[in-house]
Amino acid sequence: MNNLDEEDRNAIRESLSRFLAAEADESALRRGIDLAPGYSPGLWQQVCEMGLPGIAVPEEFGGVGGGAKDVEMVCSELGKSLLPIPFVESCVIGATLLTASSGCANLRQVINAVVSGKSIVAVGGDASFVPLQDHDHSLVFNDDQTVSGVTSLVLHATLSDFFLLGTGSSGNTKVVIVPKSERITFEPQRANDPLLRPARVSFNNAAAIGLKELTPTDLENARMRGVAALAALQAGAARAIFEITVEYLKTRYQFGRPIGSFQALKHMAADLLIEVESATSAAQAAADAIDQNAPEVGRTVALAGFVCSDAFRDVAAQAIQMHGGIAYTQEHIAHLYWRRSRAFAPMLGSAQKHREDYLTAWEKVA
Q: N or C: lower Cβ tally within 10 Å for the chain?
């Protein structure tokens, strides 16, 4: 049940929007490029003080009791700002799997720490719910409740207090939660996005808690919620760079008139607006389908997965063209949106994978 009404939701949205405009503007983003985590930890703490880590967590676990629709609202605003905080990994995927496994010993304290924002969960491995899957990992879950091996492409690893590791697929997925310890080491990896910090994480017989209560339905629920949240990030980012571009078209003059008055650019802007609105609608529809447990939820989430990914990529690319040569440089904000669109593209499945899932869902209905 969603305990938030429209008045509560609008208040949260307005508060978050004001906060991001004041504290996470372009200058804050650029400062993050020189910081180890890619953003100021103080910004994350302020987000946590707003109660956002637990927005979709049931009240029995200390959460707000909202739903996927509320996650969509938060991610849409975060996407506009490009703030690279661990919301999807820790507060959506991590929280979903942890609450589904709440019967496991010692997990209540972990859940409370994540919901309060005191702890961050990083997600790694090759399971379907992992944002950046590493199919070449060497993770081994030992019989003595420890983990050994290496996995790459783990986002937010250096600041995380817990590692949610998933391996395998097709009903044979194993999932554990590993507390941070001296038996875990990190090696930074390069990323397309200057604000994201993937890492190669090594485990040397690190203590772990197996999430044995998870069912295939729980795992699929976490994956779909992650895809829907990522789609909302992409839709929000697409809208933001579109609005930045339209403002530039209004203020950049050539031949004594704003370039936005040229017919060719008008047509380009109109096409991009359709993509932005389509992405927003797809992300909202996916969130609604999850909250209502609709029969077509898999198809709707898959639709959002490829529509929002494609829209963000197309709008970011055209924004660079419409800004002219200056937008190719990292000093221009359009460049950062383009980099983020490329970094998001493979997360939780490519656009092509989502298309295949969408078609498969249609075939099952037929």
A: C
User: Which tokens in the block code for residue 52?
Assistant: 């956002």
Q: Which two three-digit tokens encode residue 76? A: 């849409």
- Write the DSSP symbol of residue 296: T
Residue 276 and residue 133: Cα distance in Å, rounded? 28
Of 162, 88, 167, the closest CA to residue 126 belongs to 167
The CA dihedral of 31, 240, 92, 166, to the nearest 10 degrees, is: -70
CB atoms within 10 A of CB 13: 15
Token reading at 266:
């008008």
- 32-81, pLDDT tens digit by residue? 999 999 999 999 999 999 999 999 999 999 899 999 999 999 999 999 99
What is the pTM assigned to this prediction?
A: 0.95
Q: Which domains does the chain have, with CATH numbers?
A: 6-116 (1.10.540.10), 121-210 (2.40.110.10), 216-365 (1.20.140.10)
251, containing H or E segment? helix 216-251
Burial group, residue 180, by CB count within 10 angstroms (0-12, 13-18, 19+): middle
- Count the neighbouring beta carbons within 10 Å of the beta carbon of residue 352: 10
Q: Tell me how far apart the alpha carbons of residues 80 and 71 are, in angstroms, rounded to a whole number.
A: 14
Q: How many CB atoms lie within 10 A of CB 353?
A: 14
